[in-house]
Records
---
Amino acid sequence: MLITEINIKFKAGNGGNGIVSFYKERKGPDGGNGGKGGSIFIASTSDIYALSNLRKGAKIKAENGQHGMSKRKAGKFGEDLEVKVPIGTIITDKNSKEVFEVTDKDYRFLLCQGGRGGKGNWEYRSSRNTTPMQSQKGFKGQERDLYINLKLIADYGLIGLPNAGKSSLLKEITSAKPKIGDYPFTTLEPNLGELEGKIIADIPGLIEGASKGKGLGIKFLKHIEKVSLLFHCLSCELKEPEKSYQQIRNELKHYNPKLLKIPEIILLTKTDLKSEKEVKLILKVLKKLKKQILPISIYDWDSLEKLKTLIS
Ligand SMILES: Nc1nc2c(ncn2[C@@H]2O[C@H](COP(=O)(O)OP(=O)(O)OP(=O)(O)O)[C@@H](O)[C@H]2O)c(=O)[nH]1
Ligand SMILES: [Mg+2]
C-alpha cells in the first residue's frame, strides 16, 4: 500500500556513561568514556513505497552507546541508523516546527544527533586529585516528534472509463500492486507507480455525468492536473469507442478546460480480445479523432514495451 502520510517519533541513541574505575591497588584512575549514541540520518530513495517500512505511531530508535570500561577503554559507539524516504517527502518537527524537504536523489542529512558519551574518571585526574571519584553520565540522544508527508506529483496519468484496464497497465509497467477486477470501480483511490523515476497515476474510472457527481465523481482529477501526458484508455470491448471517448473528454472539460490541453495518447486496450481485423476496424473509426493511438494488451509484450518507451 502506498503510504503518503505518517506521524512518527525518532530517537537517536543515548551516549554511554563514563565510569569510575582504578588500576589495581588504586594506582590511579582508569575509568573509560562512554560511547557515542547512534545518530539517525535521512536519505532519499526513488522508491515511492519506502514510507510503508515505517510503522504508524511507532518510535524509531538508534542504538545507545555502551558504557565505558576499566583500563581506559571507551564504550562502543551505537550504530547510526539511516531511514530512507521517497523524494518529495516533507518532514516537519511538530515541536520545533523545523521543516526538512527531501528534494533530490542524493539527499542525506542528520536528523537526530546521537548523545555524546560521558567522561570516565580518568578524564578527571589532576595533580591535586589523583583518585577522582567523578564520572559523567552519557548525554541523551536527540528526539523528534515528526509528521512525514509525501507530496507526489504525477508525471503521467491513466484515465478512462471503469474497467478499461488502467490499473492492469500500471501493474504491468511499474512495480505498483493495484487491485484489478472485472467489475467497474475496482479502483477507489488513485494508485501511483514509478517507472525510471517518473510517477504514473492511475485514477478511478470516470463515467458520463462524473462532473455532476456520478460514479466516484471527478474529485480525483486533481491528481492529473499537472501531468505532462495523459493516457486515455479505451477498451476494444466498447460498442461505440468514439462516443465513449468524447464522453470522458466532456467530463474533463467540465472539471477544468485546461485538462483538454494536456497532450494525450489513446491506448486502445485489451486488443487480445479481438481479431487483428477487428482491431484495425476500430483504429479506422478512431482515426477521425486525430490523436496518437497505441493498441495495447497486457498479454502483448511488444505493446507494453512501446508504452514504456513513451514514458521514459
Ligand atoms: N483480456 C484482457 N483483459 C484485460 C486486459 N487489461 C485488463 N484486463 C481485465 O479487465 C478488467 C478490468 O481491469 P482493471 O485494470 O481493473 O481496469 P480499470 O480500468 O483499472 O478499472 P476501474 O478501476 O474499475 O476503473 C480485469 O478483469 C482485467 O483482468 C487486457 O489487456 N486483456
Ligand atoms: Mg482500476
---
Amino acid sequence: MLLQRRERSLGAGAELFYRHPIQLVRGQGAYVFDEAGRRYIDFYNNVPAVGHGNAHVADAISHQQRTLNVNSRYLHEGVVAYAERLASLHCSRIESFVFSCSGTEANEVAIQMARMATGRRGILCTNAAYHGNSDLVGRLTNVGRTQPESPDIRAFPFPDLYRPIAEGLSEQELEEAYLARVQDTIERFEASGVGLAAMLVCSLFANEGLPNLPPHFMARAAERVRAAGGLVIADEVQAGFGRTGHWWGYQATGFEPDIVTLGKPMGNGVPISATGASRKLIELFRRKTDHFNTYASSPLQAAAGMAVLDVIEREGLIVNARQVGAMLREGLARISATDPHLGDVRGCGLFIVVDVVTDRTSKTPDPERAAAFADRLMELGFLTAAAGAYKNLVKVRPPLVVSKDDATAFLEAFETARREICG
Ligand SMILES: Cc1ncc(COP(=O)(O)O)c(C=O)c1O
C-alpha cells in the first residue's frame, strides 16, 4: 500500500492531510483529481495560484528549459526583465531583488541584510509566527509559546481583535495596548545592548490566524520600528501575488515595508523566492556577501515567474480574488452567524478563515471540530485544512482562478458539513 511504502521511504511522521489521506494524480485550474478519477475543488493550495497545470506557465517553463538554463553568473535579459517587472509592482521602497528558492531562504537573506544595514542583531516577530525552517529563521517560530525568546529574537503578541490581550477595550485602546507591547520589546532589545535590526512579520499574520487588526496597527508599528533605527520586513510569502485582492498583503493592511520576501505562488510550483529592498540595501548585501544560490536567479525561474505575472494580469485574477473572496466571506459569515461553534469569519480576498470554537462566549478554540470540518469537506469534494495558532481555523485559500460557481458549491458543502458536525 502507498501509505506504508511512504512511511518506509519518507519515514513515519511526514505529515499528511485528512484522517483518510487522498492520493492525487492530476490537477487542472482549481480542480484536482485522485487516482480513482474523483474530482475535488481545491480551496486550500496557494502555490498553484494561477491554476493547477496552467498551460501558459508550463509552456514557458518547458520552452526555457529547452532553450537555456544556467546559473546567475551570466547576463540574461529574462532575469533582468523579471526583476524590473516585480519592482514596478511594488511600493517605491522596493527597487531590486536577491532571488532564492524558498521562503525560508528569502527570509534568511532579509534578516542578514537588516543586520548588516543596521549593525544591530535584534529581530522582532510575533508569538505565533512561522517564517521558515532553517536554523536561524526557524528560531522565529512560536517564540514565547513553544520556543523560548533569545537575546536576539523576541516576540510581541500578535494583534487580534477576536481574542484580544485584554477584555473590554475599544479597538483604539487595543491598538495602543498592542503597540505598547511592540514598544516594550524594542526597548528590551535596546536595554540589553543587542539593539533592533528589524521587525519581521507576515503582512497578514497568516500563520497566526489571519486576525482582524486594529485599523492603524501596522503603519504605527512600522513607525515605532523605524524610530528605533530598525527596518520593517514584510513576509509576503503567503500574502503576496494577488491573494488579498491587492498585489501585496501590505497594501491590504496599510503599511510600506523596507524589505519584502516573496515565495510560494511566485512560480506556480517552480521554486522561486525573492528578497526585495532598496537598491542601496541590496547592494550593501551584495558587497558584504558572496551570495550565490545555485538554482536561483536563473532563466528558468524568471520564465516561470514572468508567466505567472502574465496570467494574473491577463485573467484579472486580482479582481477575481476580490469578488469571489467577498462572496465566500459573506456566505460563510451567513452560515456561521447562528452556529454556536463557528465564532468568527474573517480574511480578505481569497484568504478566509472560519474560527471554530467550543462556544461563542468563551471562544475556546476547538481544533478537533475544525479537523472534522476539513475531513468532511474533503469527503464532499472540497480541499481545506485546519490551521492557525490554535489549529482551530478552517482555512479557505483556493487558487486565484476559483470561480463563483465553485464558491457556490463550496458554500453548500460547508453548510452540509456544519449541519452534520455542529448539529
Ligand atoms: C509566512 C511564511 N513565510 C515563510 C514560509 C517558508 O516558506 P518555504 O516553505 O518556501 O521555505 C512559509 C511557509 O509556510 C510561510 O507561511
---
Amino acid sequence: MFELPEFVTLAKQMNQTLKGKIIRRGQLGNSPHKFVWYNRSHEEFESLTRGKIVGDAQAKGKWLFLPLEPGYVLLLGECGGKVLYHTPGSKLPDKYHLYLIFKDGSFLTITTQMWGAMELYEQGQEQDREYIKGMRPTPIETEFTYDYFSNLIEDPLKGKKRSVKGLLTQDQLIPGLGNAIAQDILFRSRLHPKHTLSDLSEDQKRGLYQAILDTVDQVIAHGGRYDETDLFNQPGSYIRLMDKNAVGKPCPECGGTVEKIQYLGGACYFCPDCQV
Ligand SMILES: [Zn+2]
C-alpha cells in the first residue's frame, strides 16, 4: 500500500510528466473489483473527463489530488498497486481500474492491489469527503510541530491505553503513515510497537517525533520504498530497515535478533533488545 512518501513521489512525477496534457478519453476499469471505490458511472466519467487539462497534482496523507481543469479533481486514495504512465504506442495493460488517454497518445493507467478510491469531484467538493475533511496535519506540513505532536499524544481522549504503533497507524492520527513506514520509525526511536503512549518519557517523545520526520524525509528523498513502484514502474530506492527480510537477522544497531509479531492488524518487525 502506498503511504505518504509514495504519494508525494507520484504527485511530483505527475507534475513533471502529465501536467498540461489534454484528455482524449477517460474510462473507469475494465475489470470489476468490488474494493475499488468509484463515485461516477462509466458514462459520467467519460463525459466529464473529455477535453479536460491535467493540472497541478498534490499529495496529502494517503491521498492524491489531480485537478482536471476546468472544474474537476480526480481523487486517488488509500490504495496501493500501479499508477503508471505509458508513452504513445505502449500496450494497454490487460486489467486496469482507471484509464486516461491523452491527445498526444500517451496514457495513464491505475490498477489497485487491494482497494482504493478513484473518485471524480467538482473542484472543492473533494474537500468534504470522509477522511479528507478535517484531516489532521501530516508530518510534511509546517503545522506538525513538536508542540502539536505532544498535544496529540497527551489528549486524554486519544491517549487512552494507546500504544506507539497505534499512534502511528490507527484512526488517521498522523495521516499518511502506515504499517510499513511505522516499523522503521519505531526502530529509529528505539521503541517497542506495544510501548504505551502514556509511559513515554519526554526524551522518548522527542525521539519519536524526530524519527517520524527523519523517516518520512528519507523515504521521500529516495522516491519511495523499494517494495512500491513509481509512475514509471520503477521501485523506490528506500530500503526498509525492519521488514520481512530482517526477521531472524542481526539488528543493525546492537546485533540482537530481529523478531516478528502480529499486532494491530499487521506484522511488526523489531529488535527486542534495543526497542523497549
Ligand atoms: Zn537491536
